[in-house]
Every structure is written in structure tokens, then in C-alpha cells.
Inverse folding.
């Protein structure tokens, strides 16, 4: 069976690309033929590792300078040519925002739209129209949370049987667990103040009264890196906050930390929380709409904080910093709860879905 994915840039380093690489590699290992069509990124290497049996196709260089609508018409033509040549049995559209290209390019091929965003937080006019096209012309919508799966029914008219919830699986080797002895709080994500809320995290960190040698490590890259570093300097926190580039060795970063902090204003289903918990990190996270509450159990695996309440965020961090026994208690429960995101069961669910979508067209 041959399955293709389409994605904006498979070379990028975020969670969407990580889980796409994982699913592609796992399906290849189970005997599937896999191809990935990346709209941009030609000439660069993927950040994540792919099985050498996974075929990668690119439609343009990292910066596509063609002007809309000629850019999309060009993408449709090139994608259609690849699909005609390769003849996949099913196409999975990674992200719901490019139905304008994916739908006409794959006409006649069974398809799945794989939603990675929070529908309500990311629902501008163009994306809304793209989602309407996805509901009308693809065979199934896969969302990361049950709330988004329900919203596809109520907001976009999807059939209940064709709007499914499929959480992301654990993507890392979690056989080794965190020792919780390092005085480090970890946060990971794009350096973008709007979504990831690192400005709020830094503000909360500045309110901790006694850090006792603890440091906050932020891992990421993005357009707001200078703004974030300026905020750190202005608050006099350069000695206790470090910002470092993305790394492929995230396991070492998790294992070298004792708390994971998430300050996002909105999320889909944050893969980093699943990974962190699977390795035994207690969590402090804003309870933003969708995502964290599907993963974290407040008072058991970590703390969920009312969005934007940096005072309480600081207080909960302080509590875990000062109490190793509590960190160990949360860690044990986090490991137990993360088992529901085990990779084997979720990949098997993907296999069943793909087969059902294909058979539904026959």
C-alpha cells in the first residue's frame, strides 16, 4: 500500500514535522510505501531523520517567491504531476490550511486532512475557507483533540463519523526517566510571543522569590528571539534564563531538567508535554483552550494554571522548585498517565483509518 503526505516544509523543526516523520517511518517499517511532498524546502535537509525508504519531493526552494494565485496554481500543477506518476492509494494532508492546493491536486485519490491546530484560536477567513473545502472534499478529518473533532461537526458541518480524534503518539525513546535532581526548568517552542507565550513565562520567572540556583532553559528559534532576549535583559534575568537553538537530542534536554513549563496562549495537542511527561517531568502549564487539559491532570501530574495568571504560574513553579518529594510524586503519575499515548496503539489506529478510507472509495 502506498501512502503520501503533503506538508508545507518537512525540513522544519516543530512538533508537526516531528510527528509526521515518526508516522512516515513507522508506516514504512510496517511495509507501506511512503512519500512526502513538501511545498517548500528544496536544497535543504530535514531536521528530523527519515528512513531511507521514505521518498521526499519538493515543489520549490525554502522561499517560494511566486505571487498568489500563481504560486498555488504552480503548486497544484507540480503536486498533481507527482501524484499521477507515483499513484498513491491515499494522501494525508498535514495541516488544514492548504486545501486550495491539496484538494485539486489530489482529485480522485482517497484523502485525509490531519488537523494540527486549535480550530477556535486559528480560524481566520482563509483558513476557515480551507477547512470548509477539507470537509467537503476529503474523506476524513483527523484532529488531535476531541474538542476540535466536535467543532468540525458543529462549525463546519462535517459528518460525525468522518471527524475523528487521534492524539499524537510519544515520539521519543522514553525507556530512561528523569532523575529530577538538576536545578533546571525546561520550555520548548517557536520563539513567537503570540502563541508560545514566552513573554508570560519570563514574567512569571521574574516573580519567583527564591530560585535557589535554579535556571530556566528555553529551546527554540523564531522571529521574536531578539524581543525575548531583550525582555530577559531588561528584567535582569540573564544569569537565570538561557535561550538556546533547537536540538535533535531532546531526550538529553528532558533528562537534564526537573520541571517542564508551558506558557502557551493556545495549543493543539502539544507534543512536548506528552514527551516530557513520558520521561517523568512534572508539568506547570497554562490551561489554554485545547491541549494541556487533554494531557495534564491538575494536582496529579502537574499544575494547570488559569491563562495569563503569571502570579499563580510563578507560585506553582516555586512550589515544585522547593519540594523534591512532590516532584517525584508528580513524576511517577505523569509516567503512568502518558502510557495512553504509546506509539504502537496509535500507529495501529492510523493503519485501520487508512485502510478504511481506501476501502470506502472502492
Amino acid at each position: 500500500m502506498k501512502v503520501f503526505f503533503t506538508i508545507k516544509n518537512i525540513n522544519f523543526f516543530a512538533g508537526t514535522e516531528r510527528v509526521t516523520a515518526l508516522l512516515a517511518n513507522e508506516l514504512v517499517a510496517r511495509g507501506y510505501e511512503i512519500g512526502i511532498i513538501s511545498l517548500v524546502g528544496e536544497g535543504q535537509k530535514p531536521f528530523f531523520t527519515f528512513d531511507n525508504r521514505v521518498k521526499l519531493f519538493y515543489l520549490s526552494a525554502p522561499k517560494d517567491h511566486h505571487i498568489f494565485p500563481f504560486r498555488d496554481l504552480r503548486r497544484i500543477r507540480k503536486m498533481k504531476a507527482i501524484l499521477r506518476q507515483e499513484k498513491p492509494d491515499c494522501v494525508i494532508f498535514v495541516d488544514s490550511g492548504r486545501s486550495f492546493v491539496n484538494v485539486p491536486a489530489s482529485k480522485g485519490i482517497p484523502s485525509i486532512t490531519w488537523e494540527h491546530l486549535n480550530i477556535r484560536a486559528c480560524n481566520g477567513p482563509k483558513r476557515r475557507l480551507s477547512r470548509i473545502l477539507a470537509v467537503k472534499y476529503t474523506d476524513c478529518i483527523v484532529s488531535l483533540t476531541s474538542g476540535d473533532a466536535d467543532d468540525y461537526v458543529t462549525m463546519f458541518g462535517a459528518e460525525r463519523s468522518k471527524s475523528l480524534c487521534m492524539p499524537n503518539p510519544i515520539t521519543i525513546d522514553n525507556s530512561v526517566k528523569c532523575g529530577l535532581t538538576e536545578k533546571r526548568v525546561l520550555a520548548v517552542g517557536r520563539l513567537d510571543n503570540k502563541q508560545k507565550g514566552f513573554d508570560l513565562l519570563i514574567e512569571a520567572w521574574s516573580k519567583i522569590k527564591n530560585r535557589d540556583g535554579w535556571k530556566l532553559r528555553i529551546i527554540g528559534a523564531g522571529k521574536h528571539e531578539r524581543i525575548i532576549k531583550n525582555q530577559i535583559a531588561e528584567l535582569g534575568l540573564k544569569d537565570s534564563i538561557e535561550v538556546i537553538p533547537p536540538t535533535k537530542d531532546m531526550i538529553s534536554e528532558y533528562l537534564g531538567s526537573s520541571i517542564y513549563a508551558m506558557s502557551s496562549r493556545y495549543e493543539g495537542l502539544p507534543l512536548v508535554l506528552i514527551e516530557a511527561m513520558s520521561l517523568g517531568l512534572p508539568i506547570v502549564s497554562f490551561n489554554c483552550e485545547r491541549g494541556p487539559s487533554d494531557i495534564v491532570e491538575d494536582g496529579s501530574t502537574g499544575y494547570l494554571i488559569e491563562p495569563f495568571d503569571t502570579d499563580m504560574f510563578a507560585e506553582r513553579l516555586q512550589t515544585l522548585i522547593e519540594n523534591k518529594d512532590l516532584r517525584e510524586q508528580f513524576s511517577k503519575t505523569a509516567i503512568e498517565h502518558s502510557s495512553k499515548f504509546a506509539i504502537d496503539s496509535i500507529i495501529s489506529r492510523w493503519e485501520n483509518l487508512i485502510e478504511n478510507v481506501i476501502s470506502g472509495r472502492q
User: Anything to note?
Assistant: The chain has a mean pLDDT of 95. The CA atoms of residues 113 and 195 lie 23 Å apart. The longest helix spans residues 343-361.
